[in-house]
Fold each of these.
Amino acid sequence: MNSINSTIPGDATMPEKAPLAVEDPVTEERRETVEIEEGKTVGIPFSDNPKFALRNVEVSYGDTRAIRNISLDIARNEVIAFIGPSGCGKSTFLRCLNRMNDSIDTCRVKGSLMLDGDDIYDPRRDVVELRARVGMVFQKPNPFPKSIYENVAYGPRIHGLANRKSDLDEIVESSLRKAGLWDEVKDRLDATATGMSGGQQQRLCIARAIAVSPEVILMDEPCSALDPIATAKVEELIAEMSESYTIVIVTHSMQQAARVSHRTAYFHLGHLVEVNETNKVFTAPEHELTESYITGRFG
Amino acid sequence: MSNSSSQVEIVRQSLRRRYRKERRFRMYGIAAIAVALLSLFILFADIIGKGYTGFLKTTVTLEVELDGDTMYLEDPTNPDEIAMADFTAPIIAALQTHFPEAEGSAANRELARLVGSYAASDIRDLLEANPDLLGTIQTMEFLAHDTVSVYVKHADNPRYTVRLSERQQQWVDELMEKGVIETGFNDILFSKGDSREPANAGILSAIVGSLLTMFVTLVISFPVGVAAAVYLEEFAPQNRLTDFIEVNINNLAAVPSIIFGLLGLAVFIGLFGMPRSVPVVGGLVLALMTVPTIIISSRAAIKSVPPSIREAAEGIGASRMQVVLHHVVPLAMPGMLTGSIIGMAQALGETAPLLLIGMVAFIVDVPDGLFDAATVLPVQIYLWASSAEQGFIELASAGIMVLLTFMISMNALAIWLRKRLERRW
């Protein structure tokens, strides 16, 4: 570890270069030492059995390029973690996967984004159907201000997944069970969801996402607003769910990435720098930037 | 060390100054609220103190002998005889039983003026309806003459002039002692329309007119306002045109109401040929005035719906329409309702635009429907306040109280609705 520590940016032995125009001083210093080659990702970004096949993805907000030429496969039933400093584009990239960026007028997405061989950004594609297949859990728990039951039942109801009340009851129960929430709330399904604790609310949001039987669940920093115990519960849940779903999780906690994911992708200033087996990323990162990021946090 | 201790001293001194400032600021606030409450209290005390008599009526109860000879009436079923008969005579006769000394035509005239001018027609109506009562003695309650009413209620008030002769004043005093002249709750105020005579004038037709007008206003402005707000917030593209529309809506909310009245006169009456003085046109004009208010408050309510809720719904695949109808609009509803009710309360108190479209008419009958000539509460108050008879002063005050009651109930309704709808989530 000592040898890694000595390469921490800001070290007096670093040669001085002209600073680039980047707002984050730590990142700025790191960038001085390493050149990123656009479109080049080290590690194993591709898969034989991809759920998502993403090629040469570019995302820009107006004139700002948020994602620069990223190619990545997300395998079936894998848990992949996106890590990287704030503003590196990992959330933006995540939101491309179910077109949550659509509502932002200035957002432009280029490149080929395939879900099971179908283009996500095909203009003829129905976003509603896409989102039923690719569910999402957000950073802040955002249950509807309705009852617990209604929160879970809403998705199946609008998609017409249950014709009878008993079917709906069943979906609600199984979703809450899968989210590990059933025993806690089965006696108060009619209570309002906003009265639950933060951790329960987030698991309810996961149950809500599961209820429409998606194939993929996108999680955007799902534990950043939770305490360690609630976080542990959600992580446990992610491990269980990985058997039946493909999960993409954005996280700021590297321990979390290490605990829950199979592969980890490191993003830097809109570039996808490195994708690799999670334990490889955290023990022997191939790219210098990945290394300084993870050691900077640990060191 | 000395440096840090002097810093502490500086901080301490500045703290003292800060607290003083804070206290002073709090005092300003309390003073402002006190002034507001005091003015409100003075306003209410003044209105209620001067106007409560508007809720009282003065009556004269008499044993009237319906004698055919004194009335020159033999057959009450004959319309010609009814038209020619003298129904004042039995009233004078009944009053003369209290004051046998009052004789002669001058005294008779003065006696007759103790009761209101509708007293004779009360007897006529009674006989027309029940011809059998001719020749019997009936106990009847008449409204006192306006001047008697003023004397009874306001004898000590220098703002009123007593228009009774010395002799009449004596009679009234005596009759009050005997309990013949009494004051009671003015049910006429709430059961009749306007009248030339204050004692016989009521506010019911204005209340009904106001309700009909408000109904039209609500039915038009609420859906239009909410739909426009939802479209502008949720669906409209952000471009020059929508910016232009937004600026214009904000400007419309500030346009003086009389301009809307002129617009209504020119468009609804002039162009579309709608009738004057009717609640439909009044409601349309007030709706034009209320729509901008509703749009602005509804847009604010929609904007305040947290984006996380929208994302949550979109994230599980709700369509744009479902997001709006299932989540955004229900969450924004309390705010929309509050804005709408406040807009409606404003419209309820509006007078100027209605004057222009002719809702300032003298309306005796309670309007039957949306196309029946009507007036509204504030216009009725305006009419009474500008009338010559003294009795209308207190009626105007009573009308103001009725209008304020309506306003306060509407605002209370807005608060209640907001509380209730918010609790549901």
Amino acid sequence: MPRRLLLPVALLAVALAIAAIADRPLPRADAVLINRGDATTLDPQSMSWLQDFRVAKLIYEGLVRQDPFTPDYRILPGVATSWDVSPDRLTYTFHLRTEASWSNGRPVVAADFIHAWRRALLPDTAADFSGMLFHLRGARDFYAWRARALAEFAASPPADRAAERLWAETLARFDATVGARAQGDHTLVVTLARPVPYFLDLCAFPALFPVCAPIVRAHEHIDPDTARLRTDPAWTKPPTLPCNGPFEVTAWRFKRDMRLAHNSHYWDPARTNVDTIAIPSIDDANAQVLAFATGAVDWVSDVTTSYRGDMLAAKAAFRLEHAAAVEAMRAQGVDEIEIDRRLPDDPRAHIHVLPAFGTYFYNFNCSPRLGDGRANPFADARVRRAFALALDKRTIAQTVRRAGEPETATLIPPGSIAGYQSPRGLPRDVARAREELASAGFPGGRGLPTVELLFNKDGGHDLIAQAAAACWERELGVSVRLVQREIKVFREDLKNGNFMVSRAGWYGDYGDPMTFLEPHRTGDGNNDRQYSSAEYDALLDKAADEPDPAARLAILGEAERVLVERDLPLLPIFRYNQVMLFNAHRVSGVTPHPRQDQILDRLDILGDGKGAERALTMSGGTEARTPGSDKEAQGSAGEGARRGEP
Amino acid sequence: MTGLIVRRLLQLPLILWAVFTATLALAWAVPGNPLENPEGRRPPPEVAAAMRAQYDLDNFWRFYWSYLERASGVRWARESLDGTAASRARAAQEAGLPPPARPVFDLGPSLHYKDRTVNEILWASLPISATLGAGAILLALLIGLLAGIVGAVRPGSALDAATLGVALVGISLPSFVVGTALLLVFGAWLRWAPVGRWSVGAAILPALTLSLPFAAYIARLSRMAMIEAMGADFIRTARAKGLSEGRVVLRHALAHAMLPVVSFLGPATALAMTGSFVVERVFTVPGLGQHFVNAVQNKDLFLIMGVVLVFSTMLVVFNLIVDVLYRWVDPRIEGPG
């Protein structure tokens, strides 16, 4: 090689060697988890992804917390030690614990909640879940007022602009009109617009978590050109980020890893069972499984490899070898994770299928016209029922999905909400399906335009769509066209009604049927089906006014019955499962509860000599907390219940 | 030579402006709402409208000019002069915080990674991709030149056929196959390399995977140029002078064969150093390449613009470096670049 070229090459090699020596990997953390995806934000008010919520529940604490090892997802005291509810169920007075502290040593005070909630209610910091706070009295009006004021500001001549004055006015207006008030440092009074039986459940949701007001305020400024409040995202990065949960963030390297450590300022140090948690960023499904197999990772939250079905088959074979023992344990009510823990340790048993708080379904477009103006045959409920009755859900669940997901005829996963009785739904009945189609004027499918089935690329939706289309063509004599779109285009098509039938899925955010039923209300922003039924809307309103929790759930059950038995704006196909990897003999703290958001604060690596070293199991208690009975929740706040032990 | 460098650097802003305008027009036309979480629920309509307004996503021209103002450094200059920057730094100091970061070229926030600015993302991932890419180019040079020389010395021999065959495989095999196979063998079975953890010291597998297509290309380029050179008059002269065969091949023929390789190295280095989506995914490399794909999928406008502008800059700069190297290696090359 020409000598002159050797010099740059040698320089490059030396630089690389120096880089390799400078970049020392950190030691392995006590627990290494692969979350669903990379955290997108640690600002609790800006979050909208499940992986962010999961981290939020480790590093923040709301007014209350929940115990995922109780069937009713029991509400436990968090920053609030207790709370009083007014007889009209509109006013909640929370009493904050005096020893609650941020990781920077500052106390957690009522003003921190006010600051956080005000951020969520400002169009300036607009985020997906701002709407959760619209339950507060005056909140929605305040939001609209500020949005209008900002628009008027932008339209006004620059000489008249006074951004700071508008901001002062905004603060005053929030204090005067929105139903959230701090009384001293340790009392927070919340007034709702109307009774919300699941309000405490919402208080355990990240959008309502507090932020350390002095730190966040120092990162905020008013943009003189737009009058908008701008927040420098530097506050969410360690070492600045103040945490008030059991863990604090010690490092967050973009696309590389996040490191958590036990928060020494947390009021309940006994809660944590590991000192450090690492959450590496591994996107590739295959690499995730390999990393787990080499022991570099303790928990993989979602297994999505193409050979997942084979891994599950191996687990089924393992369970079959111990069939008698498994049956005996199931009869005693032992949870599925604990069963694996009591069986011999076997790598085949490291994959776990757990029921999730979500349903896979198809939307029917219920509006009389499609987005492009064509007449829509699915506006007729008889056509929708025919397609629902004809679909072979079992084949889809068992031979297409292969993740052990049960077919379903309801929207709300049965058993996921304590005290709620699911309707039966429509069982498969091909003969009746043909009758329904004929009565709608399409005997044998004649006269029905080609049905367009819309789905998004990736995620295996194409296979399910093919199976569904083949089934409908075979059983109903219709012709089906498959329409595949990129996810962003798919979402636009849904919003604009450019579909007849489309793939859909829904996960619940809180433990109440409303989290599934609200999106079917007339005009709701998530009502992609454009379903509109005065009777259904009236049932939801009636439930909202019903003070008795049991009677309320019965009304909501009736509303779901209207959806899944009579009007069929959607066609439930199967309940989602979550497929995870972890060794139950080594890891404790992962819950089999059907809510599946995985609050991992009590995560324990068994045998590492740290923490309780005792596996957590679903507590056998079957007594259900009926949503809305706050007094009972308070009563269960004893020491034993807090640890979630039976 | 100085004239060449100055001319090219003066062209750079113009090129970037044209690339920015074309890319933004295309990215803006992609359907879909960048602020909508495809897995989640839609926020109430007033919230959705506020989210768009927050980032000027409701007006193309407002977005275009405000981006241009910030990315070009005009905003930085204005804020430095009118005292806004100073007052903000003072406010931070009063709160006991470090002064806010104020990059000259502000590429805006990421719409998907809400806590990160595009500048931060580039700072975090570009050095990693550049390190990995540089290693891969070194490996590619080593493997490619060796294969090229071996082939050219005895063209048509079994050894030549073998190296050509390997080069063909290197070009054709997609890196997700090579990468996954390497990871399985050296990571999972032999446990020589970590799985799912990135460190520069453990970068040999991704560097090798990344280098193979480049190595194959270099092998073919150098082989052809060498074969051509071996028949040339100056080689005959060198042999007639009584030089050893090794000296003839390594000094005289290779010097000639390097020229096409060097010109290939310009765009190749820019490409390797800005990362590869597939290699980064398989080996969990926190590099830049993944953002070329993910940012488009997320319709993360700021990040799309950021990575495209960085890639364009690197392409211009590396082509310039190659032109300079060219003249340095072979002073006979003259004239405007």
Amino acid sequence: MPRLFCLFVILAGACSQARAADSVNFNRDVRPILATKCFACHGPDEEQREAELRLDVRKSAITKEAFVPGKPGESELVRRILSDDADERMPPEGSDQLSDKEKTLLREWIAAGATYEQHWAFIPPQQPDLPTVTDADWPKNAIDHFVLARLEAEGMQPSPAADRYTLCRRVYLDLIGLPPTSEEADSFVNDKDPQAYEKLVDRLLKSQQYGERWARLWLDLARYSDTNGYEKDRPRSIWPYRDWVIRALNDDMPFDRFTIEQLAGDMLPDATTDQRIATGFHRNTMLNEEGGIDPLEYRFHAMVDRVATTGTVWMGLTTGCGQCHSHKYDPISQTDYYRLMALLNNADEPDLVVPDPAILEGRRKIEEQIAALEAALPNQFPPLKGEGTVEELRAAAVEHAFSKWIEQERKATVAWSVLRPHHMATNLPKLETLADGSIFSTGDITKRDVFTLRFKIEEPITAIRLETLPDDRLPARGPGRAFYEGRKGNFFLSELKGRIGDSPIKFADASHTFGKIAIGSGNANATNVLDGEGSTGWSTATREGESHRLVLNLAEPLPAPCELEIEMLFERHFAASLGLFRISATTASDAAKASQTPVDLQQLLTLSPDTWDEVQRQTLRQQFLRTVPELADARKEIDKLRKALPALPTTMVMLERPADNPRKTFRHHRGEFLSPREEVTPAVLETLPQLDGDQPADRLAFARWLVSEKNPLIGRVAVNRAWRAFFGSGLMRTSGDFGTQSDPSTHPVLLDWLACEFVARGWSMKKLHRLIVMSATYQQSSRITPELLQRDPENRLLARGPRYRIDAELVRDSMLKASGLLSAKIGGPSVYPPQPASVTALAYGNTKWDVSPGEDRYRRSLYTFSKRTAPFAAYSVFDGPTGENCVPRRDRSNTPLQALTLLNDEMYLEMAQAIAKLSADVNRDERASFIFRRLLTRPPSGAESKALATFQRAQQQRLGAAELDAELIGGNDAATPESASWVMVARAVMNLDEVITKQ
Amino acid sequence: MQIPFHTQTRRHFFRDCGVGVGKIALASLLARTATASDTPTAPKPTHFAAKAKRIIYLFMAGAPSQLELFDYKPKLTELEGRPIPPSVVKGQRYAFIQPDAAVLGPRFKFAKHGESGAELSEILPQLAKVVDEIAIVRSVHTDKFNHSPAQLFLNTGSGIPGRPSMGSWLSYGIGSDADDLPSFVVLKSGGSLSGGASMWGSGFLPSTHQGVPFRSQGDPILNVSNPRGYDERAQRDSLDLIRKLNEERLDVVGDPEITTRINAYEMAYRMQSRAPELMDFSSETAETLALYGATPGDGKHAFANNCLLARRLAERGVRFIQVYHSGWDHHSNVEGGVRGQCGQTDQACAALLQDLRQRGLLDDTLVVWGGEFGRTPMVEASAALGRTKGRDHHPQAYTMWFAGGGIRPGASLGATDELGFHVVDKPVHVHDVQATMLHCLGIDHERLTFRFNGLNFRLTGVEEHHPVQELLA
């Protein structure tokens, strides 16, 4: 009976919050009926809508004469739901019918005026007044007023304050994600200053480790990973984005700016490198590199992910339903969904080279060395034999060879003139002619791209030359546009055909400067482009970032004038068309051959040497020195230095497409990639205030809108997320969902107060966190009394402090810190801490996991290389994310596999050994306590000390009796039975529930 | 949210029952009666009487050629070298070939076997001997034409990684009879798997339900062995100390989660005790080893070893045993490739059925064999890739077989057109396959749901799908 009584009290409490009045309430009573019984045919979904009637919008319903407010007797809706005629009655036969009670409610609602209410979360929060509380001494700040008022209404009391060790450990774990050392804890516990806690909080908020802790939570939302996902799951470089998040959080970048830079940093005026790096947020989607996929299909899936993630992170709404159909309950139509997609869908997705100053400096030094060595090359030329000093003979030899080289080159060089197309067409990409006659390709590409170019030919040309050209805007500087599966920047030209009118032109032969294909055993001969076989072709794999030439001699000179059409086919099991190229022609009568000499020098060589100025002559001379066989040995050192040039890191970013080539967005029937329907224009959800009309509706406008007063959800979603990080669950439990179907908040007014306060305090996340940890609510003891367990086991009412298992990364980081091994290094490429080789052996291609040397072995866990298809085992076992989805809330499981990890994983055994070693200098009597406190902060109780001592003695005895191997357990040859026994003690303590619990 | 089962996990109960705060109070009543058996993977009642208690899923990753194994198409020999009419190919996208590629005839002879008269390729001589145990479906089709999405689709109902896998749905839905082994075990041999860890992930279900891959090197279950230097007693002593200290703490802070932790450590200990016995094949007779062609510890016999291990796992109450064998992706030389793969798998597959039958386990074990899609009637050849006489990916039609608990032995179902291109009789979608498998375990696929992000998710997606009645005993 008492149990039932308690149940009743809590239910009543829940109701008292929701039921403000006895009259019919739209959100509480009517919307659920309409939503479940009517909206499927008369709701937001235009595809399913019957009789053009929608009941989810009052004005539409009245216009269509569904009801007359205040007059149920004159309302068609009432007549229909009460009708006995099966043909007239609504809902129609076969659908879920209305109960009598529901019919009555609808009737009463119309009688009372049929007022609609916006769902509470769509109404902007207003700063509420603080509620009055009886126990005015307890609150430390405004939060406590709301919490206490609720508790007092329930007849409950807050818990006493947590003891200082517990509080110290709690706030360390929450703010910097690491426990305090014993010394750090003692200095707080013994600090008599009444401001001691506040001082501690401020110190932790300033710590660089704060950014690392909170970045990890944000990376869960960003679905950060170091690999591309899907089958091949190759590595990607996007860690500069992760480091940007850490920096932004440490700098307390206001959340509105934090948002805008991540969604649209590239579109800000004079965007900085940092602002461009920030756009990596939505580049964290997966990239399917499996051979043979349709790249546009997986780009579509990435867009679906981006819309869903944006909805979850900044709107607290599950927009995902809208992909396939209009939302059944929330006012999100399928068109709304694709309009949101259109806002985000107009970006290209390049890599950004990050100009790291240290690396740039390193490059500069090497380049200087190279320049010096090149300048000295003539000094190593073998001198002529004969009279004179060595220097003279050497100089003469150089000049002699140079003259000969020029003569030969001039003979082999023909004059090319650039052909500029007057017409260009493709299956999809956009081609444009640049000032130098080169042709640049942008927009989306496919596995089978066809470029058709038309030229007006004025002279009887005898050969055609295709130059492939590098460009900073292309993947790996091009010249190709391959961005997955093949090498980045690769291209594959399958066929090149020429036509005059309907007649194909014949080619005599083909040559190239270099040929190699990226995947497969086939050759890359120049003639492949003429063989009529799409699966063979020309490619310059491994030489990305360079220009190469393909020369095709015509069987006969073209009859000039004429219109020449050139068709280039790029057909491969991955998309690999050219990004930048140029077409030239010659009228030379000799058969032309692709020349290794750079094109601008070829041009010079066709002119008379008398016309060369000194600079031009020097350029030719340099080319000579770089290629002349006599200096091959001398150049080896230079080649070596070139290879040693340190590469700048890259990171994946967004880049808004040029205005003249926007990407179209369509509504996709049933969410299917292959079923695009009508084109949609970019816009925010129809039910919410719209974007400013005077600005283009694009990603930047959307980002700004998300953090404006027009988005009523933003503050609530952001503070709720922070709340969850401290208390284990949010004030809204379903944090991804503030929609009409979400559970009501336990503390709706507190949520609104915090949301307003957050914005009023300049969107400062640090101030918000400070506010929360300074509250009495946060500082309560987390002890769960039998009464509390019975009454509120999940601590929804906040009558105690939080107590729950810490996140996967904190488990490892805590123990790294306790063992003194933790590296303090911040940022940089991800690292590989030890784990069994069998973990990644299971992944595609039997992936190796080469453990990082040195301090990288002990870096904080957010730096661990995150492989989507084979996540780090010690994290996934503790519910660490895979990076496949946006995770607003992690599961917190409690499993035997976690026990096996902490008991037996070598990584943790190494830490146990390190902790035991640290304790070696401690007085024997205090050694157990020392180990205990490294891991648990607080001193052990008498019983705990005794149990540890007994265990240690027993194990030392067994070790001493050689029943156990001290060297193996101790982890080194010098281990004694005693030292090994302390390793066993440390290992046992590491396995206590409390070590992996925040309490 | 439908409530799929009479008994639910506590966590599940919190989320789905009642309204608002009231649910918590109810949950606390449950919490107090929680015992060690009230773990999330404890057995739970099914929707209706189950014919099978467990599944052994022989997943032939890479997609075996149905045209070389089960679906005999002499017409292809006749038309070899000629393209398939565009009216047949329609708009199908291919991974590697162009739609106008020429036809390639079957590389093997076919003959009828057993009482059922099922037509099988000569390259499956062992399966032919037990053909009356299996039911063959020649009309399976899927939505995906690339490996990773298609493997994920079969396992999770979605081509995008991150959804719960079938084994985790089962663990969540009906729990497991094993309290010293995971409810969902993954074994692997052959080449690489395309779908990655998501194929045994738990997605948005509680992570307790995720599959546990057995490793082919080191510990079969990660960290299941004691650390070097620790003997059985040292481990037990340590666990006793941990338990004692955890109990001390429970007295002080009163958090029931500590009880769960104590139980998890005890189950970990049971797994440690169980694993060596499980992996020790010395109790198997020479006849059994010979039946499978198993050689413990020899990687060349990995698939046969895994089939035998699957039977041992089945005996020990594991709910879902997934045996992947990769290496069926024959873009080139489909004849040689299929011959090699059948050499590694045919005997062990047949042996598994025989062995389960002998031990009386086949009646309540559902055995499933199949890949993620089929292979094209057209030839794949590519000079760049060095490929000849292969077959590309074909999602429109392929073959799977089923045997054991809940399945009508000897059944033959579905047909393709004379080119083996399209299904012309009794199409069976991948979601129907999933619905059928759940059905055999007593689960209505429409009622096994989980609410996440505002949607009720199920393994078989939102469209209408059904268990394949003709397959069911």
Amino acid sequence: MSQSTGSKKKAVIGIAALAVLIAAVLIIYFVARPKPVQGAKALTIEVVDDQGKSTSYEVHTDAEYLRQAMEETEGLTFSGAESEYGMMVDTVNGVTADYNTDGAYWAFYTGDSYCEYGIDSQPVTDGDTYRIVYTTE
Amino acid sequence: MTEKKAISVKDIALIGMMIATIEIAKITMAALPNIELTSFLVIVYTLYFGKRILFVIPAFILLEGAMYGFGLWWIMYLYAWPLLALIVHIFRRQESVWFFCTISGLFGLSFGALCSIPYIFLAGPGGAFSWWVAGIPFDVIHCVSNFVLCLVLFVPVRTALNRISVLFHFS
């Protein structure tokens, strides 16, 4: 009877000790665990719509190409047709540029220079500004 | 008049069996993250076969290195498993199953911390701490699984090892 009580006591002590230690290391884990770091590249994306209104977005990203950076930009929406050269953007923030109707398109600039590539292959560089401008011919 | 040898043929056979069972248990459970029987087997073999564990652990560590390569993890094995055997040897007079379940659980919980020691020299104390923290969830799994496996297996394995010890006159 007393042996059984002693065994139960040892069981309780053992389990309690492990539970306390597990709780302690889990607290250390949740305090000190690796946290996601902010993207290493700071970019500015400016959208100029069909009314000439400009909206700027700041994004921190690890993206290599503009499309992923745009996808990670909060508040910026865009869509278009997929092609072998990547996405051909026709709509930005709900504004559609229809080339067949009035020769309108979305022009992409890095700084003041026209982007040489489509958004899927346009490299992005830390500190750069990318402009998406509604343009008509 | 018979001369008592330090290690007999029977001992060598037993040591071989111990190494084989540890290695087979390790390989068969390798797919389960940090769930292993090595800790449990080191504990019971140290309790029941005493000094023979001094041959078993180095052979097991060498075998592991030969099979998987002598990487940094292998350095960790050099002190982690002997430490467990040493602790069990110190407390060998304990008879409580719960006691050894707790030892096994504590060993599992501290395994990551033990393995982070080489990183103190490679990456500094901060690097070693980060390495340990990143692996804490696995240490918790290791702790719980070691405790449960020991709780489930200790009594039946102890019974079997007692029979073997009597049958083959191991002391």
